[in-house]
Amino acid sequence: MQSSALPHASPEWSGSDPAVLTLSMFGVRIEVRVEDPSLVERILTCLPVGGNTDSSARIDRTYEILKTAPWLSRKGASDSPTGERYLLADRSLVWQSTDDDALCSRFQSDIELFLAVRARTHAIVHAGVVGWHGRAIVMPGRSLNGKTTLVEALIREGAEYYSDEYAVLDPNGFVSPFPRRRRLWIRRNPQMRHVCVPEDLGASAGTTPIPVRSIVVTEYQPGAVSQPRRLTPGEAVLALLSNAPAARHQPGYLLRTFGTTARGAVTWSGPRGDATDFAKQLLNLIATTLDG
Amino acid sequence: MASAGSSDLAVEGTMRPHARKTGVVVEDIDGEVLVYDLARNQAHCLRGITALVWRCADGQLTVEAIVNRAQEDFAGDATEDAVWSALESLFDAHLLVEPIAGPSLAFIQSRREMMRRIVGEQA
């Protein structure tokens, strides 16, 4: 069975002033207007990698990053005296800040979420994903439920990194890495996180779509003794659906796609304790249940 | 307090439950039925007798006929109570076009009525 690979290209920059970047991905077309040319290179690093530049498609969303407050620019005012920048999506203010890092971070989150909600060619789920022996382990879950920690533990056991934020599922039950620049936010302690790339942990990063073999619905609970129970394919679909930003927009497409994914996978559910112990337990469970 | 006597049960057996088939997205997956309620943005996974009752509840078949159909598919597990329980679950999930009063629903309603009276007398 063939799976549809993600397109590969770079966002297009027209070279105009202000800069206009266009990006098409998952059947969604986005335009980004950057008023300050010195910020363009920085903005490019926030955009999903890949995508194509189908200029015939209509624009689904326009972002603007401005130096002047939009409510003042109409009156001919100049740049913000405080150095603030303004992020707008379809003319609505999303964020304003003097901190470029914060603004870029917010821009990246917003554009990724928009793609997750509006994707037409793939179903996107909040999930950690690793590859193991050519098949994927998908761990759906919202932010702060321990996905990244579990992904880190699994890749330390030799798994291949795919994502610690979004799983990109195609209608054939294959998963692709989310097309962002690879990074992992490793929690060193409750107050501090450290950014690294999978290679820093000795891991390789998957680039091609692979079939989903296991879905693991889990959440960190201090002191929990992991005793995962099997879920039915229908329950697995519900778990994926509850972590899909597009659930309200295209439930029919998601039910079909998740149904295909769940039919081809085994799903376990239950709280977990320590990530390292659970990673070992999970890989052993897969070895004895699926490989044995 | 009202009770569901044998004559009530006979009447209830002739009711024709009607599952909502509009405003929902339905997907079958290995015998389970996934129903997404577009109005409430809620998803339900129906299994076993509940899935069968959902499929059979077309507004034409009586409860009695659905019980017979369930007994063909599930043998001993498909008691009349189990079918009524499935209908209750579907009703609670807003997946029936209109409410249907089965034995236990009648009991629940009478119990609620009784509680209202008790509370009313104490007030």
Gist?
The complex is a heterodimer of chains A (292) and B (123). Chain A is an alpha+beta fold.
Verbal overview:
- The complex is a heterodimer of chains A (292) and B (123).
- Chain A is an alpha+beta fold.
- Chain A has helices spanning 40-44, 70-73, 100-118, 147-156, 233-241, 251-263, 275-291; strands at 12-13, 19-25, 28-34, 61-66, 85-89, 92-97, 123-132, 135-140, 160-163, 166-169, 174-177, 184-189, 192-196, 210-217, 229-231, 266-269.
- Chain A has a 6-stranded mixed beta sheet.
- In chain A, helix 5 crosses helix 6.
- The longest helix of chain A is centred in the middle third of the chain and has 19 residues, at 100-118.
- With 123 residues, chain B is of the alpha+beta class.
- Chain B has 5 helices and 3 strands, in the order H-E-E-E-H-H-H-H.
- Chain B has a 3-stranded antiparallel beta sheet.
- In chain B, a hairpin with a 2-residue loop joins strand 1 (24-29) and strand 2 (32-37).
- In chain B, helix 2 crosses helix 3 and helix 2 crosses helix 4.
- Chain B starts with 5 loop residues before the first helix and ends with a helix.
- Mean pLDDT of chain B is 80; it is low at 1-10.
- Classes of the chains: A alpha+beta (292), B alpha+beta (123).
- The interface between A and B is medium-sized, with 17 and 14 residues.
